[in-house]
Design goal:
This protein is mainly α. The protein is 55% helix and 6% strand. The chain has one domain.
Amino acid sequence: MSRLFDNLDEKKANDIKILAEFISVYCRKKHSGLPHKDVKIIDTRLQEIIGQKEMRLCEECERLFNHGTAKLMQCPFDPKPSCRKCQKHCYAPKYRQQIKEVMRFSGMYLVTRGRLKLIFHMFE
């Protein structure tokens, strides 16, 4: 097992699950014209968190998902604040802009389709 997941708690696990869901929705809706491939989730603990063994993403979204997962797992704060309220932004500037766009689009998309529990996550 990767040492990256040694500090996994319920909050981080939930954040990773939401990250995977948001990026999947965004990629499916915004990047439908790009080639997608199966992104294998090798780590069994990560498979359990997101509830699947693979995701279909374009190359750009795959890089964003990998970057976001790594940054979530390396967060030095306990308890971990929501990323947008954090005083120390760990995402690289390029990925920070991308994740803002993904969260904005996917959050509204999922909330308008009845995923009300996401409203609470958006206001954390």
